[in-house]
Amino acid sequence: MVFDCHIHLSEYPDDRLRRYARLNGFFYTLEELLSSMDKEGVSGGLLLSPLLEDGSAVPNTHILKLCERSGGRLSPVLTVEPSREWVEDCVETFTKNRGLVKAFKIRLGYVRVKPVNQVFSRIYDLAEEHGVPVMFHTGDTATERGSLEYSHPLLLDELAVSRPELKIVVCHFGNPWIMDAAEVAYKNPNVYLDISGLFTGGGEYRDKYVEWLSNRVSEAIYFMGSAGRVLFGSDYPVESLSEAVRFARSLKVSPGDIERIMWLNSKEVFGFG
Ligand SMILES: [Zn+2]
Q: Cα(171) to centroid of ligand 1, in Å?
């Protein structure tokens, strides 16, 4: 079984991720995504809001609609922006869709706000109360207007310490700060790491780079001493589902740990199925 905890999709013409879709030769439609899930044996996934060309996020209402049309294959993640109105809206949407919403997402690096900021307190309270994880973008940003200072995984240590009951997902394994992200997870038992969106497109050194990543992520797992909090994700359309699955299966860890990464850990932390 495979569960993809990090998928993007929208029908907005100004969706910034269409560039990645084009690069990878995808139509970037719900039909294409679902048929590719069938082909790769991905039984379910979490749908996260993509960013638009102006840097803002696709509204959560659109994500909820796409999930509804997926016939239960995709579950929504609510993106939370740092404003009182947006937070209130998310609290309301979460309450109305109790059980359906599997996580919240904060776009570190796209919004220049630190994770411990007061503006997110109500979301963290709600997440703790319902055992729902909060996912954080970390590492390189999809646009040069992003801020690396605000997307560094070390920023999550303070939040993890101050809220030990909050489940935190560090997206993209903090890439390129892979060992920094591993240390945050090693130190804090409430921190998880997803392996989504680590590579995209082609280029002369693509295969070498993917091999380098596979070694780095494997070594980070040795450092942590366990793959118990590592989660499979593709970041479609940044990666194809087939490449993402191949990458995860290339990690030099035990077959039992591969199973945990592919779906067991996600089942535990997001509570699906
Ligand atoms: Zn993403």
A: 7
Q: pLDDT (tens digit, 9 = 90+) per residue, 207-241?
A: 999 999 999 999 999 999 999 999 999 999 999 99
Residue 59 alpha carbon to ligand 1 centre in Å: 15
Query: Structurally, how many domains does the chain consist of?
Result: 1
Q: Which residues contact 14 (CB under 8 A, 6 or more apart)?
A: 52, 53, 54
Which structural domain, as residue segments, surrounds residue 248? 2-270
pTM over the 0.90 mark: yes
95, exposed or middle or buried, with CB in 10 Å at 0-12, 13-18, 19+? exposed
d(CA 273, CA 164): 25
Alpha carbon of 67 to ligand 1 centroid (Å): 16
Taking a C-beta distance cutoff of 8 angstroms, is the pair 10, 271 a contact? Answer: no
C-alpha closest to that of 200 among 29, 14, 21:
21
